[in-house]
User: Fold Polymer-forming cytoskeletal from Thermovenabulum gondwanense.
Amino acid sequence: MFGKKEELNSAKDRVETIIGKNAEFQGKIISSGVLKIDGTMEGEIESESDIIISEGSKVKAQIKANNAVIAGEYQGNIFLKGKLYIKTSGKVTGDVKVEGIIVEEGAEFNGKCEMIRTENG
Assistant:
């Protein structure tokens, strides 16, 4: 997924769960659909789909998901079956285990990255 910009926009259109800009959440989220975080979150996230952490958001969590797009501040470890996209405004602190990683110019990544192969790769 997310091979092209249109696919990324398509994921945004399929968002099933949103933590709003003024919301704060602590705990564990288990989701089968796309999860978008615009606010503040601390805990654990498990999704069979994708995670979008918006610009201006602050997340301290462990993530297990398919793909993730991070444009906000993220602290914690990330385990993905697919790709991690760190946008220009994104800041990631923690270790990642992913199939692929894309870090845009201006983004920050502080941690260790381990690349994994999928069953198809």
Q: What stands out?
A: The two ends are 14 Å apart (CA to CA).
